[in-house]
Amino acid sequence: MLLDNHVCIVVGSGSPRGIGYAAARMLASHGAKVVASDIQMTDDLAEAIDASAGGRKAVTGIACDITIMAHCEALVAQALDRFGRVDCLINSAGIVESIPFSAIDDRAFDRMMGVNLKGTFNLCKAVLPVMKTQGRGSIINMSSLAAQRGGGLVGGAHYAASKGGVLSLTKSIAREYGAFGVRANAICPAMIETEMLDGLSGERQKAIIDQIPLRRLGTADEVAGACLFLASDLGGFVTGATIDVNGGNHIH
Ligand SMILES: NC(=O)c1ccc[n+]([C@@H]2O[C@H](COP(=O)([O-])OP(=O)(O)OC[C@H]3O[C@@H](n4cnc5c(N)ncnc54)[C@H](O)[C@@H]3O)[C@@H](O)[C@H]2O)c1
């Protein structure tokens, strides 16, 4: 299988309709040992992911709040302790808030940056020494179309800015760690049918879909497919890239 002998940490995999959950399931079903993590991760959730991936007992659940560096370090340490290596980190944890610029106060801005950007930094910082020592690793960070087009679909300016930071962080890691065999890539999804879209009215959704060349929403599995490519040796010469999974919503 594509990911035989791979150990993958998938953070943000605690929401059954979410991208991280789908990625954890897809990686496990392609042979990886998966550490599924989320602020709301439970043994039941990890078992459900495992069952949906064929029930190979390949999924271990570990709770982690990515805003806390000590949690991120403990997550990586536990994965290492259990499996002896970490081949891939997928960071799909994130929050969104759809408010106009004038309504973004200090607290809202810091919270958004704390989870989406600092949380991504914390996870990367925790896993990079391990990958550098191994001489191998793949980091996949979830950014957003909002970072490329300046928000405007789902999420305010603080969300778009936090995801822009994720893009820059990912490219910098790719440049700095390429010589050690570590790849880092970002995925920019848009309009993927998960809980994140629940706040959008049907009317607003339809207006957005009318502008998408493929004329539909994306699925979490379609983003997970891009993760599978980047996690495996199929994407072995891909680093510093931004992969769009947006139905043509933004064509460069
Ligand atoms: N759904 C979309 O259309 C879309 C579009 C662009 C980008 N994204 C990005 O993709 C990623 C996944 O989004 P999704 O749609 O699956 O959302 P989701 O809400 O279903 O999943 C996000 C997960 O992150 C977890 N999380 C939140 N804060 C956390 C923290 N502090 N520590 C650990 N876990 C935390 C949540 O518990 C949740 O399980 C996010 O980064 C999001 O910004 C999604």
Description:
The protein has 252 residues and is of the alpha/beta class. It has a single domain, classed as 3-Layer(aba) Sandwich (Rossmann fold). 44% of the residues lie in helices and 15% in strands. It is built from eight helices and seven strands, in the order βαβαβαβαβααβααβ. It has a seven-stranded parallel beta sheet with strand order 3-2-1-4-5-6-7, with helices on both faces. Helix 1 links the parallel strand 1 and strand 2. Helix 3 packs parallel to helix 4. The longest helix has 29 residues. It is globular, with a radius of gyration of 17 Å. The mean pLDDT is 97. Bound molecules: nicotinamide-adenine-dinucleotide. Nicotinamide-adenine-dinucleotide binds next to helix 1 and helix 4.
